[in-house]
């Protein structure tokens, strides 16, 4: 294997990994807001909550397109195995995102007869988050592969573990949504978000602990990765860092700090994401297909990498610009619609 053949899949894996991490954090908070939507009792509270994400929500989904498209073009063999294994939850996720996006826009023009769009927004957000967790669970519990092709059934993804991962992501996104509202909303919406913050934080920590126990118990290679020596000593700081960041999140919620809860909630997601990467690297389809097994031809990867190098700074610049322009809290009665 040449240096180029070795390094290009690693570069693409890092790019896709960053895109997925940014999607989870950025689209996670507005999906979380949709999950929490039924808890806002008045129309004014729901309007204010939606206005906190109005300038951001559609741009946040750019990272999902980049992550999925990058997997397709850079690692077509992995894409060809993963998609048949999770067709149904992927379809549910995409339909839920469509309903959520349509509801976001239509509820403003349908007033005062907008209740059905409120329901669509909340249901679409919750279903999309749950389906993403199910897809993650299906990948973690390992996909059956024979001769480089998917060899399982249409419902192999439907297991207690994948359902648990779906619920975990719903709770985690709800935490991101609550901490976002602590940072971006004022008045009753902020106070309600703070009241929900601690139970959601405890729920997320419970799911992190459950995944951390369940995965090594059912998959021997993950247990060996984490608990063999000297790996145990090298990896022990990760759960300790998770506890520290969780404590910071709790402190931020209790002390009415605007930025700390959201930053630390995002940190919890990133630490959990790093843990999953450590458990499964270098496999894209555990435990059968590695980065290098799934990689496209180097010439294709180089060609696509040129486009990514041009577009990524533009996307990042746009994201930073929008967050800077629309900084500050949205107070009751204020908004962008």
Question: How is the secondary structure organized here?
Answer:
Layout (H helix, E strand, L loop, with lengths): L2 H34 L6 H11 L3 H4 L1 H13 L1 H10 L1 H23 L5 H26 L4 E2 L2 E2 L9 H25 L3 H31 L1 H8 L3 H5 L1 H18 L5 H21 L2 E3 L3 E2 H4 L3 H28 L12
Antiparallel strand pairs: 1-2, 3-4
Helix pairs in contact: 1-4, 1-7, 1-8, 1-15, 4-5, 6-7, 7-8, 8-9, 8-13, 9-10, 9-12, 12-13
Account of the protein in words:
This protein has one domain (3-325). Helices cover 77% and strands 3% of the residues. It contains 15 helices and four strands. Strand 3 (283-285) and strand 4 (289-290) form a beta hairpin. It is globular and about 60 Å long.
Keywords, separated by commas or semicolons:
3% strand, 77% helix, 15 helices, single chain, two-stranded antiparallel sheet, 337 residues, mainly alpha
Number of helices: 15
**Ends: how far apart?**
55 Å
Helix content: over 70%
How would a textbook summarize the main sheet?
2 strands, antiparallel
Number of domains: 1
* N-to-C SSE string, H for helix and E for strand: HHHHHHHEEHHHHHHEEHH
Percentage beta strand:
under 5%
Q: How would you classify the helix and strand content by structural class?
A: mainly alpha
> What is the residue-averaged pLDDT?
90
Identify the strand order in the major beta sheet.
1-2
Overall strand count? 4
Shape: globular
């Amino acid at each position: 294997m040449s240096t180029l053949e070795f390094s290009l899949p690693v570069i693409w894996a890092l790019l896709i990994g960053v895109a997925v991490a940014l999607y989870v954090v950025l689209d996670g908070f507005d999906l979380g807001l949709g999950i929490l939507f039924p808890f806002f009792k008045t129309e004014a509270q729901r309007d204010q909550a939606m206005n906190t994400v109005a300038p951001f929500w559609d741009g946040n989904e750019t990272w999902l397109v980049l992550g999925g498209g990058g997997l397709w073009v850079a690692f077509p063999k992995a894409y060809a195995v993963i998609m048949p294994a999770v067709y149904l939850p992927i379809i549910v996720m995409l339909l839920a995102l469509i309903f959520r996006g349509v509801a976001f826009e239509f509820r403003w023009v349908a007033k005062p007869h907008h209740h059905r769009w409120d329901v669509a927004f909340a249901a679409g957000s919750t279903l999309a988050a749950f389906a993403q967790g199910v897809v993650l669970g299906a990948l973690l519990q390992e996909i059956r592969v024979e001769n480089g092709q998917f060899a399982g059934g249409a419902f192999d993804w439907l297991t207690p573990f994948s359902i648990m991962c779906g619920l975990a992501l719903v709770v985690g996104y709800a935490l991101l949504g609550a901490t976002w509202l602590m940072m971006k909303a004022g008045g009753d919406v902020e106070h309600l978000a703070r009241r929900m913050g601690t139970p959601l934080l405890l729920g997320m920590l419970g799911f992190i602990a459950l995944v951390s126990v369940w995965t090594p118990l059912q998959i021997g290679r993950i247990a060996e990765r984490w608990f063999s020596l000297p790996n145990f000593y090298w990896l022990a700081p990760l759960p300790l860092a998770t506890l520290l960041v969780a404590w910071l999140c709790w402190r931020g919620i209790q002390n009415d700090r605007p930025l700390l809860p959201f930053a630390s909630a995002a940190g919890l997601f990133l630490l959990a994401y790093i843990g999953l990467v450590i458990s499964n690297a270098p496999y894209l389809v555990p435990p059968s297909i590695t980065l290098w097994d799934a990689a496209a031809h180097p010439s294709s990867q180089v060609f696509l990498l040129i486009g990514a190098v041009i577009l990524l700074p533009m996307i990042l610049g746009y994201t930073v610009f929008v967050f800077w322009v629309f900084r500050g809290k949205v107070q009751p009665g204020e908004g962008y619609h």
